[in-house]
Structure formats: C-alpha cells, structure tokens
Amino acid sequence: MVIIQFPDNSIKKFPSGTSALDVANSISEGLARNVLAAKVNNKVIDTLIPLEENNQLKLELLTWKDDQGKETMWHSSAHLMAEAIHFYYPKVKFAIGPPIEHGFYYDMEFPKETSFSSESFLKIEKKILELAKEKNEYKRKLVTKKEAIKYFTEKNNNYKLELINDLEDGQITFYQQGQFIDLCKGPHIPHTGHIKAVKLLNVAGAYWKGDEKNKQLTRIYGISFPKKKELTSHLERLEEAKKRDHRKIGKNMSLFMFSKKVGQGLPLWLPKGAFLRSQLVDFMKQTQLKFGYQPVITPHIGSKELYVCSGHYDKYGEDSFQPIKTPDANEEFFLKPMNCPHHCEIYKSEPRSYKDLPIRFAEFGTVYRYEQSGELHGLTRVRGFTQDDAHIFAMPHQVQSEFESVIDIVLYVLKAMGFDKYIAQISLRDPKKKEKYIGSDENWQLAEEAIIQSAKNKNLETTIEYGEAAFYGPKLDFMIKDAIGRKWQLGTIQVDYNLPERFQLEYKGSDDKMHRPVMIHRAPFGSLERFIALLIEHTGGNFPLWLTPVQFIILPISKKYNEYCYKLLNSIKNYDIRGHVDDRNETTGKKIRDAELKKIPYMLIIGEKEVTENQISVREHGGNNLGSIKEGDLMQMIKEKIDKEIEKN
RNA sequence: GCUGACGUAGCUCAGGGGUAGAGCACUUCCUUGGUAAGGAAGAGGUCGGGAGUUCAAAUCUCCUCGUCAGCUCCA
Is residue A150 domain-shared with residue A198, that is, in the same domain? Predict the structure, then answer.
C-alpha cells in the first residue's frame, strides 16, 4: 500500500508498485503526459520507479513549470545528446553531463584524430530529435561497483572509472535510454519524447574536474524545450540580451574604446563615457565625505619591496606585468596592482592613538593587473582599472560597526543606480587549501566570523562560497548579473587581520600599550570600469538623467531658427543642464530619429510656433510628446526629476 | 594561458583564386521642413599583420596579432 499526501494536503492510497507516473495518470491524462519528475519527501526522483510503501509520502509531481522539472529534463537531454554524439563518434569517451541554469552540457574526450567543431551541430541536433521521437524510456538500473567497473573498463572510459571509484557500492546506478548507457545517479524524465526542441549552443574546452593540470575535454553546451515555440522565444531573448551588451552600446554611444596599439584590456574613455564616469566619482566622493572618509592619493607604481612585504609579490609577482627597472637596474618597481600597501605606509607615517581610530583612507586608485588574455572582456575584465578603494584601520571592537556601515554604503549605491537584484556572497577560504592563503587560523576565524555576523545583523540574504576569499582575508562580495546572466563582482568588503601584521601597524591604546589595528578593504563600485559596464547592460544605455552625458538636444525645424536655438541653448546652460543644438541640414523627422537612436532624454523642438509663442515643444526619449512648455517650467521639471533621482540615493 | 569560432570602408554586413561590394555614417549641392530615415552627386579599403603555394591570393596553407563563447584564473 502506498499512502500519498498531495501538496494540497489531501491523502490518497494506491496499490503497491504504484509509480509517480501512475499517480499522475490517476489524476489526469494531461498531467501524466507532462510530468517530468517527482518530488517525494523533498527528494526529486524518477516517475517510473515504484514508490515506497507503508509510510505516508509527501508527493509533488514536477512538470516543465517547475525549476526542478526543467533541471531533470535538461539532465536527460544531456544524456540524449551523448547518445546522438555516440552515434556519429562511437570512440568518444564521456565524462560528466549535468544540467545548468539555462540548459546543459556534456564534457567528453574526442579521439585525437577527430576534430569537433560547431559545424557538426546541425546533424547532431537532427539525430537528437530523431531519437527523441522514439520515446525511449530512461531506465534506471542498480549495479554493483564491480559491474560498473567492468562495464567502463570495457569501454576504456577512465573518467567514469574515476567517478565510480569515489562512489559507495550499493549506491551506483546506470541509466539507459535507447542504445545508450550512462553512469548516473538520476533522476530522469520518463522518456525521450518530452524533448521536442533542442539547440546546441557552443563548443568549448573544459578541464577534467575543473583543474587546469588535468586534460582538457571538449564541452558542448545545449538547451532543450518541450515545445518548439519555447526554443524560438529563448533564442529571441538571447538576441535581445545581446543588444544590451555594454561593448556594443559603448561603441554606439561613443562611451569608450579599445585600441590594439594602446594594448589589450586597456580601455580609453571617450568624452561622453568620461563624463558619465566623473559623475559617478563625484557622487562617491560626496558619499564618502559624509561617512567620514579622508581622501589620499598614491602613485601608480611601488617598489618590489612594498609588495614583498604585503605578500602580493609571492602570490602574484610571477603573473604580474614585469617590473620596471631604474637605469642602473638596482631597483625594481611594479605597476600598482592594489592600493592597500600604499595606504598601509600612509597609516605608518605617524604614530596613531586609539583616539584617532577608525581611520578611513579613500582613493580612486588606478591599478594594473596582468589578466590572462582569454579572460579579458569589454570593460568587465581589463588590465588597467580604477577602484573606488578605501581602507579602514580600526580597533578590533570597532570592526563590526565599521563593516556594517560599509554595507550601508554598498546598498545605498546599488539602490541609487537601480540595481535591485544582487547576490550577496560571503567568500571564505577553502579549508582544504590553506596553503593558498596567508595568516593564522585564528585570524581567519576572527575575520570570517566578523563578516558572517555583520551580514546577519544587516539581514542580508547571503550565499557562502568556499575558496573565493582573497589570499589575505575573507570577503563579502556583491554580485550583479550581466545581460546574458553572467555574474560579476561589483562591491566588495574585506576584513583583514593579516596585512596589519605584515606591515607592523600599531596604535597606542588607552592602556599605554601598543596594539594592532584591523583593516577593512572596501570598494562599493568595485571597479569603475566594471560598474559602468553593468550599468550600461542594466539600463540598455538609457541612464538616469543625472548621469546621462547629453540630457537634451535642441532641434530647429529649419535653419531659419538656428540662431534662436543657440540663444536658447545659452540660456538653458545657466540651469546646469547639458545638451546641444542639432543644426544639421536635415528634416525634423531625421533629427528626431537620430536623437532617439542616441538615447537623448529630451528633444526640444523649435519652429515658427515656438518662436512666436516663446515656448518649447518637448518630446521625451521613447516618443512621449509633452507639448509646449515655457523654458523656465521645463527647466524646473528637469531639475526636479534629477533631484528626485539623487535624493532617492 | 587552454579549446573552438571570427577579423572585408567609421558602423552593420555580403563576396570567397582573375581590376573591392551594399546600406547607414561622412563631404558637397538641391530642398527649408512639425515628432523615428527628403533627393542627387562624391569621397572613403595594400580585405588585421607576416610568410608560403600560384601566372594570379581578400579568397588556399602556415605563423602572428586582435575579437567572441567557454574553461582555468581573478589581490
């Protein structure tokens, strides 16, 4: 007897041997047709296996509408793709093939003589759909470790054997659909027929077990859907997202550029981009003054000794830009990869008393890091960038409140820029790889606890990632997704007990003894380059009015009004609002179209009527016509809008 | 750095061994206009760079630089 409790709390009894699919069938044919997996007592399982008897089970039937339903479907799709690839390339060794946030991938080793590229996608997609039509069941089979090892030894698949080695005997399952058998813990969808549309997206290299010392396998990414239409709209969404790519918008709106001659990953800010950036810097400067920060300025290079002291040399020296040498070659300098060592030296420049603390040194420090060429990416990953950096030197008992006050700044900034979806990630050290970090266990524990506690006090919803800490201390990172869903770290706050030790930083306490301060590293924007990249992708180039480089454009209906328009422009400039006149010999329709494409918020149209009535005809970006307005009223309206934007900050 | 793809006019792209193409942008002229493209003419490129194969290379081969997707890395 199988006793089932449904999500609506109703309870029903079924005969022994009943599977989740049978239950679905008893409810409706439609549900049975759509059910992909089952959640029993919160564990996702196959729909085909008989449900456990006697104990009452909580059962939820999962379909495409459920995230775990999608996940199951994509996992099964990975198997099906493997079957199709196996059909054309029988010698391929399969490694792992999991579902991911949007779709799935499978890592595999192609025989040396076989090269695989995206040209083969079409025939594989075709084969997948062909196999899908066969509606083959995903059959689960419990095997012994011995059997599993025997099977994959015969297949000569060292990857699966390695995986089996780590598994416990008695827990090992194979899944078979059609002619394809795979080591897999499941669960899977009932049969391949659910997969109605599939698209292979790209092929890439991926290291076995994510370790670059291991062999690089071929990874094929794909996505599948239960309806063709959903695939089409998914692909359309991807196309839409590409239009928000900051590299594309940056080019179109003349915000920034790169030049091969200047160098890879070294952005050049064009006048409009530089303006936007300076608005952000001014905003942050003001914010930091309010929060008690003191600006400092340090040079772009520092001696090797400085970084040996901080530990950066040991950690990154080899992978940095190579040192700059003085003519007699006795001295070596590095391009500044971080501002903290310089700030430590400023701290040390005079004796500090407990009465001085906390001390907060802030600098828009431009730093240079030799990032691997394959990792460079528009403005989000560059080799020269500017941090809105600051270092807080505090007494141990002040760490908590200082940390929380930085969280306030970060949240304030994110909100002001309209980033309402962010991920707050607590980045701790990998306890298994302590050799990657400097400092004592005790210091790490103190620092990690301080962060976890602060996040808790601020009611932040956080995720924890091990192995993501900086080498000198743990972090609280604020991540934002870009147009195609990649996560980027923007704001970061780090607690550091280690650099103060390395730099022998001290302050005199009320007990007349010397004590060691704790450092907090923090950057609410993170890097201005990356922040602006994400700002572009989120706004699609339609920036908040206070940030936008060109706020209005005056469009004379014909050149008869050009002179009047320039007078108007001069008058408007007194209001501290930015714009210019489009005096080209073009029709009004053309000028409007161009202004729309340039995403200019206000178009001020001037013709016969406006000149005689001394009014301005105003069109907003996007097509909204505000009608005729007096100059003063319009300026007040724009001013108010800007004030509101900054006020919400 | 690794795997795969791509580099043709300022931008978006077509062409694919035999004299370099389109649309937009740009310049000049005509037109003087009313809320997303008025008309005409013109200028603009050693087809990323280098070597090779060939009578002949933008096109084929190799190398190199850069860009894109992913992996690894990310102070």
Answer: yes
Q: What is the CATH number of the domain that holds A200?
A: 3.30.980.10
Give the structural domain span for A16: 2-63
- CB burial class (10 A; 0-12, 13-18, 19+) of residue A602? buried
A153 CB contact with strand B at below 7 Å = no
Residue A248: inside a domain: no
Residue A112 CB partners (closer than 8 Å, separation 6+): none
**Known catalytic residues of A?**
340, 369, 387, 389, 391, 475, 521
- In this structure, are A141 and A232 located in the same domain? yes
Report the pLDDT value the prediction gives residue A648, as an integer from 0 to 100. Answer: 55
- Do A505 and A637 have their domain in common? no
Residue A463 lies in a domain: yes
Residues A25 and A157 in one domain: no
CB count, 10 Å around CB of A457?
13
Domain identity same for A466 and A531: yes
Does A218 map to a domain? yes
* Residue A158 CB neighbours (<10 A): 15
pTM surpassing 0.90?
yes
β-bridge partners, A39: A44, A60
Q: Is the separation of the CB atoms in A360 and A390 below 8 Å? A: yes
Question: Do residues A205 and A127 share a domain?
Answer: yes
Instruction: Tell me the CA–C1' distance in angstroms for A122 and B60.
Output: 26
**Does residue A527 share a domain with residue A397?**
yes
HSE at residue A411, side-chain half, CA atoms within 13 A, is: 13
Region A622-639 average pLDDT: 96
Per-residue pLDDT averaged across A97-107, rounded? 96
Hits for CB < 7 Å against strand B across A residues 183-202: 202
Please, which pLDDT band fits residue A466 given cuts at 50, 70 and 90?
Answer: very high
CATH number at residue A568: 3.40.50.800
Please report, rounded to whole angstroms, the spatial distance between the CA atom of protein residue A75 and the C1' atom of nucleotide B10: 46
Domain limit, last residue, from A182, A212, A243: A243
Which positions on chain B have an atom < 7 Å from some protein CB? 1-5, 11-12, 25-26, 29-38, 65-75
Residue A643: pLDDT above 80?
A: yes
How many domains is chain A partitioned into structurally? 4
CA dihedral over A224, A229, A234, A235, signed as positive or negative = positive
Q: Could you give the CA distance from residue A283 to residue A524 in angstroms, rounded to a whole number?
A: 12
Please give the Cα distance from A80 to A138 (Å, whole number): 10
At A530, which CATH number? Answer: 3.30.930.10
A102: Cβ under 7 Å from strand B?
no
Kindly state whether residue A335 falls inside one of the protein's structural domains.
yes
Q: Are residues A533 and A557 in the same domain?
A: no
Give pLDDT tens digits for A109-155. Answer: 998 777 788 878 989 999 999 999 999 999 999 999 999 999 999 99
User: What was the ipTM of the complex prediction?
Assistant: 0.95
Residue linked to tokens 């090992």:
A172
Residue that wins the pLDDT comparison between A434 and A284: A284
pLDDT mean over A573-578: 94
